[in-house]
Specification:
Strands 2-3-1-4-8 form a five-stranded parallel beta sheet, with helices on both faces. It has a three-stranded antiparallel beta sheet with strand order 6-5-7, with no helix packed on it. It is globular, with a radius of gyration of 17 Å. The chain has a domain of 150 residues: 3-Layer(aba) Sandwich (Rossmann fold). Helix 1 crosses helix 9. It is 48% helix and 15% strand. By secondary structure, it is of the alpha/beta class.
């Protein structure tokens, strides 16, 4: 099974990707994680990406597609994958379609996770990140013993600037302008399946599985 999880920041794509990955025994491909891994490993594309990021620019579609190509060709994706965080624009979606055709692969479904802006702001307001290991936690969901320390490495937990309400609203505006049109792209390809992501994590997961079983 090959899936794309689509939706605004804070909708729960990463959480659902992990649950679906475990259930279907397929790889969870987080483009953010892949980018960080390529930079850490010092790959050719990782070095290029680091130069771009260090200069304060956004990583180009060409670099991201190259990194994703490497991931999709790896053994961990031989049974399928879930793409989380990509594509974010129509040109990226078109580039991904071309890449999959090159690799002789097809997407089975694009899960469109819908949620209100108000809920996104509330959810991200409860999100914390570890300064040491980079793991992300939610105060409401993860029930942390200490709200200031990472349960994995004891690093300091903090709220990213990206997760503060004013910044979140800007991110939602960018999503509406740049990423939302991707929905129409996959709708025309008859791949889009929509789920209400405002429900509990377990309910959203059940609803996604129902949609996949209807495929």
């Amino acid at each position: 099974m090959r899936l794309i999880l689509f939706g605004p920041p804070g909708v729960g794509k990463g959480t659902q990707a992990k649950l679906l990955s475990e259930k279907f025994k397929i790889a969870h491909i987080s483009t953010g994680d892949m980018l960080r891994e390529a930079i850490t490993d010092g790959t050719e594309l990782g070095k290029k990406a680091k130069e771009v990021i260090d200069s304060g620019q956004l990583v180009s579609d060409e670099i991201m597609i190259g990194i994703i190509k490497g991931g999709l060709k790896s053994d961990k994706c031989k049974n399928g994958f879930i793409l989380d965080g990509f594509p974010r624009t129509v040109p990226q979606a078109q580039a991904l379609t071309n890449l999959l055709a090159e690799l002789k692969l097809q997407i089975d479904a694009v899960i469109n996770m819908e949620i209100s802006d108000k809920e996104v702001i509330q959810r991200l307001g409860k999100r914390l990140m570890c300064r040491s290991c980079g793991m992300i936690f939610n105060l409401q969901i993860d029930k942390l013993a200490h709200a200031s320390r990472c349960p994995h490495c004891n690093g300091e937990l903090y709220q990213r600037e990206d997760d503060k309400s004013k910044t979140v609203q800007k991110r939602l505006n960018v999503y509406l302008e740049s990423t939302f049109p991707v929905k129409d792209y996959y709708l025309k390809l008859n791949l889009l399946k929509t789920v209400n992501a405002q429900a509990s994590i377990d309910q959203v997961n059940r609803d996604i599985i129902i949609l996949l079983n209807q495929s």
